[in-house]
Write a structure and sequence with these properties.
Elements (H helix, E strand, L loop, with lengths): L11 H14 L7 H14 L4 E4 L2 H11 L5 E4 L5 H9 L3 E4 L22 E7 L8 H10 L3 E5 L7 E2 L2 E2 L6 E5 L12 E4 L3 H10 L21 H11 L2 H18 L14 E2 L5 E4 L3 H13 L24 H9 E4 L7 H15 L1
Helix pairs in contact: 1-7, 2-7, 3-4, 8-11, 9-11
Bound molecules: pyridoxal-5'-phosphate.
The site of pyridoxal-5'-phosphate has 14 residues, from helix 3 and helix 4.
Pfam family, one: DegT_DnrJ_EryC1
Protein name: DegT/DnrJ/EryC1/StrS family aminotransferase
Family: Belongs to the DegT/DnrJ/EryC1 family.
């Protein structure tokens, strides 16, 4: 069986080494030494100052919205994972969808201004598949209209734009370290901001607002993560460079083997240092995508319709016509891509897809 992704699992001894330390210290959670070490090492690896390790990438979006005081309408993308939209609704905000660009699959900055109203307070955009949004245009629009910007960077670990981490852009950037992501802590997530006060506020918010054992200086909930999750992160972080390189080689192999049928892929700007988190391909129509998926499934290969459906179809959302997101969500497939995938398996996948076209 070849799934669309497989979580990376390090050699068990490397993890048990950390477990021995946890057993000795008997410190399991609540901002323990491994959580602190992970925060420092991730910041160091990405070249960032303020990073908070959280329980998941969805809470990361929620705490960013809360800490920035976002209310009313938020401009967002219909082409993302459901968590981008559901967190907005959960936090009492109204998502206002703006269609995506047909070449990048990211929110189209040219269409943002037309959607701004007196109620708009923020833009929440996803760097889809780790491909950065047009952060320069988005930041200019946000400044002009005094809006906050949050980037859902769930796919972006290790991505750089113009020489610095993509997490440097916007008021807050979020990350997910879920098991399916390129760098993972089983469950986990993070927020990044260059604003010290905001960082402090989110640190309090993730820990019930505790500012000392008897002082509560913010409204907070439980967004913490544990020593066990931090430990797997510390082990996996040592391997992340090798993981990115292997994914890059596999992606190049896909490009070569699928070259003749000219499937469209998201356009990535030249200033981007990419992380090869996903291998999305766009078929000419929905029928071709489903035919390829069915043929692959017959050989126990499971690509994923990611993202499908377009988020305007969520039951708690007022339906809206966004033709580009609608079209792309129906035609896109993410092909299998993970550290343990072999070049032979990529060859097999490509042979099956090519056979549909011959
Ligand atoms: C995975 C993902 C999330 C949610 O992250 P969790 O850690 O699973 O909560 C949010 N947004 C996008 C785009 C994602 O892919």
């Amino acid at each position: 069986m070849i799934p669309v992704t497989k979580p990376y699992l390090p050699p068990l001894e490397e993890y048990t080494h950390y477990l021995e330390g946890i057993w000795k210290r008997q410190w399991l959670t609540n901002n323990g030494p491994l959580v602190n070490e992970l925060e420092l090492k991730v910041s160091d690896y990405l070249g960032l100052k303020n990073f908070l390790f959280l329980n998941n990438g969805t809470f990361a979006i929620q705490v960013a919205l809360k800490a920035l005081g976002i209310t009313g309408e938020v401009i967002t993308t219909p082409f993302s994972y459901v968590a981008t939209t559901s967190s907005l609704v959960w936090e009492g905000c109204k998502p206002v969808f703006v269609d995506i660009h047909p070449e990048t699959f990211n929110i189209d900055p040219e269409k943002i201004e037309a959607a701004i109203t007196a109620e708009t307070t923020a833009i929440l955009a996803t760097h889809v598949y780790g491909n950065p949004c047009d952060v320069v245009k988005i930041d200019a629009i946000a400044k002009k209209h005094s809006l906050k910007v949050i980037y859902d960077g769930a796919h972006c670990f290790g991505v750089k734009y113009k020489g610095k981490s993509i997490f440097e852009y916007g008021d807050v950037s979020t990350a997910s370290f879920h098991a399916t992501k390129l760098f993972h802590t089983v469950e986990g997530g993070g927020v990044f901001t260059n604003n010290k006060e905001l960082h402090k506020k989110m640190a309090l918010m993730r820990n019930f607002g505790h500012d000392g054992p008897e002082v509560f200086s913010e409204l907070g909930v439980n967004g913490k993560n544990s020593e066990f999750h931090a430990a797997i992160g510390l082990v996996n972080l040592k391997k992340v460079e090798a993981i990115i390189q292997k994914r890059k080689q596999l992606s190049i192999n896909y490009d070569q083997k699928l070259g003749d049928i000219k499937l469209q892929k998201p356009k990535i700007d030249r200033s981007v240092e990419f992380n090869y988190g996903y291998y999305p391909v766009l078929f000419e129509d929905e029928k071709a995508a489903i035919t390829c998926m069915t043929r692959l499934n017959r050989s126990q290969i499971f690509p994923r319709r990611y993202f499908y459906p377009s988020l305007v179809h969520l039951p708690y959302i007022q339906e809206d016509a966004l033709p580009i997101s609608e079209d792309i969500s129906k035609r896109v497939l993410c092909l299998p891509l993970y550290y343990e995938l072999s070049f032979e398996e990529v060859d097999l996948i490509c042979r099956i897809i090519n056979s549909v076209y011959s």
